[in-house]
Amino acid sequence: MKHSIYHQATFLKSAAKVSQLPDDSGTEIAFAGRSNAGKSSALNCLTGIRQLARTSKTPGRTQLINVFTLQNTAHRLIDLPGYGYAKVAQQVKQEWQENLAHYLNVRQSLRGLILLMDIRHPLKDLDKMMIDWAIQRALPVHILLTKADKLSRGQTQSTVLQVEKQYALLPDLISVQAFSSLKKHGLDTLLPVLDAWFAEPLTPDVSHTSE
Ligand code: GDP
Fold first, then answer.
1. Which of 2, 51, 130, 195 is deepest in the core (most CB within 10 A)?
2. How far apart are CA 99 and CA 201, in angstroms?
3. How many Å lie between the centroid of ligand 1 and the Cα of residue 177?
4. Is 164 in the pocket of ligand 1 (CB under 6 A)?
5. What's the chain's Rg over C-alpha atoms?
């Protein structure tokens, strides 16, 4: 089967914080988005495993980072906690944000970020913040505009262009596509992005070379 590595994802562990993640070696790709953006559905669509992203969705509960390994265990998919859930206490929101920022900032094995946004509500403040954090460390971001089946083809295309335009100065770092887990549309564009990131060798961490 083509692209079967994503069909061989298995759950490794959940981590409440970055320090509980597996060793920072190998290569990982993280999936992030506001809660309800369609992240679990997209991960299920990608891997074919229904229960894969059955994350704890109870509002207010500690949200965990879920780690999945691919057949080659040095390759990981990271399901980051959904952000922006309205009913969560401000302090908990703050903690999630710090956790996400910390993960994006320090994780050396992270090769790219898949950022999911409902195509009807793209680029909310927290989404832009995630993108900015990624840009700060030159981490590529591939944006999935989810639930594209909710819009016409014309509306879908114009939203993709509108989001692309926001980051037109950073074409090497930011890419955008429409996606529908419901219709299974967009996997053909997503898979080559993941493949390329997993295939890339890790660049040495120049920030620690003085030691
Ligand atoms: P998460 O909170 O980001 O993990 O989002 P979920 O994957 O749980 O999806 C949130 C809601 O959006 C659910 O009601 C899904 O059924 C719905 N949803 C997710 N993906 C799609 C899609 O591609 N099309 C449509 N129409 N609805 C979707």
1. 130
2. 26
3. 17
4. no
5. 16
- How buried is residue 30: exposed, middle or buried, by Cβ count under 10 Å (0-12/13-18/19+)? buried
**Which H or E element spans position 145?**
strand 141-146
Residue type for position 114: I
Protein residue whose Cα sits closest to atom 18 of ligand 1: 38
pLDDT at 102 over 60: yes
Q: CB burial class (10 A; 0-12, 13-18, 19+) of residue 210?
A: exposed
Q: Residue 211: what pLDDT?
A: 43
Q: In the prediction, which pLDDT does 210 show?
A: 45
Q: Which residues contact 30 (CB under 8 A, 6 or more apart)?
A: 77, 78, 79, 80, 103, 104, 107, 110, 112, 113, 114
Which numbered atom of ligand 1 lies nearest the CA of 179? 23
Nearest to 39 by CA among 133, 118, 100, 94: 118
Q: Model-level pTM greater than 0.85?
A: yes
